[in-house]
Design brief:
about 110 residues, mainly alpha, elongated
């Protein structure tokens, strides 16, 4: 159940909808809120499942590995975000902060 909530809310967060910025942020916050419930339910559940299926000899090491791998997952997510951001920056370079992108492409005559 928690995995299903996490998958659905993750996809829905990425596909937040709305015609106005406020509506997009509202749907994003809604789905991220429920994603937090899914993650909060999965956090203790993963250790519980590991402790039930491990034998007595290796149980402590397996539970420690479950919690240690969460740090590696956070690090992998950060590295993935950096790679995707650099690909987007190379493909779609943003104008410098000092440049006014709207003034250079839109003239007053367009609105009259």
């Amino acid at each position: 159940m928690t995995l299903m909530v996490m998958v659905i809310c993750s996809v829905a967060s990425g596909l937040s909808f709305g015609h106005e910025p406020k509506a997009v942020m509202s749907t994003l916050c809604f789905f991220r809120f429920w994603l937090g419930f899914g993650i909060g339910g999965d956090y203790p559940l993963s250790a519980t499942i590991m402790s039930e299926y491990a034998n007595k000899k290796t149980r402590g090491a397996f539970i420690a590995a479950v919690f240690a791998m969460q740090g590696f997952g956070i690090m992998a997510g950060g590295i993935f975000a950096i790679i995707i951001s650099s690909v987007f920056e190379a493909k779609f370079p943003a104008p410098a902060y000092a440049d006014d992108a709207l003034r250079s492409t839109v003239s007053r005559a367009d609105f009259v």
